[in-house]
């Protein structure tokens, strides 16, 4: 079946602009995760959704970052007033039920460049 | 919260040699330890995982060992091949908690030369 998809694949924006990144998880997967991967860095956890609820927002780096999920499916990560340090690859992953021992299936990522 | 340290950050080996990547974690409650492989320009994919009730797990040329007392776990790749070249990430989580996220190490870039 279809894997996790993300759009856009690449986004170039100017400092101060808002951006929206989209994630389509695998159909039927309850859990959805957002990570950020900066150059030479690991996978930094941002936020987790169980259904439409976000029980763990501890990784969001600032109040410029927000995310929502509707219908237990698509999720949008919004970055307001982008800064150059926001430049990174934003990865989304999903898993069937959200227990920590499940395989997480990753999307291809959105490469964000803030000029 | 959990913190995962991964070493080395880069590793270069000759084809056929073995490669070992080590990770340590801080939270003794963590009990699930997966390893992901990310090839250049591609998404991370799970290659092997281990739960805290076992000390070692093998899958062909890949093995993972876990020492819960010392809070460290390692990935072993034998008979390395050029296609093993990638970034490898270890991770830890408390799998008994619903809604727990994986905490990843910073990754190891493995280069296998022929």
Question: Could you walk me through the main structural features you see in this protein, from its secondary elements to its overall organization?
Answer:
The complex is a heterodimer of chains A (115) and B (114). By secondary structure, chain A is mainly β. Chain A has no helices and eleven strands. In chain A, strands 2, 4, 5, 6, 9, 10 and 11 form a seven-stranded mixed beta sheet that branches. In chain A, strands 1-3-8-7 form a four-stranded antiparallel beta sheet, with no helix packed on it. In chain A, strand 4 and strand 5 (43-50) form a beta hairpin. Chain B has no helices and eleven strands. In chain B, strands 2, 4, 5, 9, 10 and 11 form a six-stranded mixed beta sheet that branches. Chain B starts with a strand and ends with a strand. The chains are: A mainly beta (115), B mainly beta (114). The A-B interface holds A 4, 31, 33, 35, 41-45, 48, 50, 55-56, 58-59, 91, 98-101, 103-104, 106-109 and B 1, 6, 31-32, 34, 36, 42-46, 49, 51, 89, 91, 93-107.
Biggest interface pair, counts: A-B, 26 and 30 residues
Flag low-confidence runs of chain B. Answer: none
Largest sheet of chain A: 7 strands, mixed
Residue share in β-strands of chain A:
over 45%
The overall average pLDDT of chain A, rounded, is 91
Separate helix tally of chain B: 0
Helix/strand-derived category of chain A reads: mainly beta
User: Which range best describes the helical content of chain A: under 10%, 10-25%, 25-40%, 40-55%, 55-70% or over 70%?
Assistant: under 10%
Q: Count the helices of chain A. How many?
A: 0
- Helix content range of the residues of chain B, please? under 10%
Alpha-beta classification of chain B: mainly beta
Distance between the termini of chain A: 37 Å
Q: Uncertain runs of chain A with pLDDT below 50, 5 residues or more? A: none
Oligomer: heterodimer
Radius of gyration of chain A: 13 Å
Number of DSSP strand runs of chain B: 11
Shape of chain B: globular
Mean pLDDT over the residues of chain B: 92
Rg of chain B? 14 Å
Task: Please indicate the percent range of residues of chain B in DSSP E strands (runs of 2 or more).
Answer: over 45%
Q: What is the H/E string of chain B?
A: EEEEEEEEEEE
């Amino acid at each position: 079946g279809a894997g996790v998809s993300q759009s856009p694949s690449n986004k170039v924006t100017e400092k101060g602009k808002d951006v929206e990144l989209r994630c389509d998880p695998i159909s039927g997967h309850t859990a959805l995760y957002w990570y950020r991967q900066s150059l030479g860095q690991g996978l930094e956890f941002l936020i987790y959704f169980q259904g439409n609820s976000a029980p763990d927002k501890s990784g969001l780096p600032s109040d410029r970052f927000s995310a929502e999920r509707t219908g237990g499916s698509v999720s949008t990560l919004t970055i307001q007033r982008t800064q150059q340090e926001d430049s990174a690859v934003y990865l989304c992953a999903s898993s069937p039920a959200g227990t920590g021992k499940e395989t997480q299936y990753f999307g291809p990522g959105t490469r964000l460049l803030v000029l | 919260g959990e913190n995962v340290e991964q070493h080395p950050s880069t590793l270069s080996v000759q084809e056929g040699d073995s490669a070992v990547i080590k990770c340590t974690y801080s939270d003794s409650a963590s009990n699930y330890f997966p390893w992901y492989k990310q090839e250049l320009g591609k998404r991370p994919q799970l290659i092997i995982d281990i739960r805290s009730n076992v000390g070692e797990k093998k899958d062909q040329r890949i093995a993972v060992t876990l020492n819960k007392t010392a809070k460290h776990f390692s990935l072993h790749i034998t008979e390395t091949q050029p296609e093993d070249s990638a970034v490898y990430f270890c991770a830890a989580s408390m799998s008994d908690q619903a809604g727990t996220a994986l905490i990843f190490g910073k990754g190891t870039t493995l280069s296998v030369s022929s």
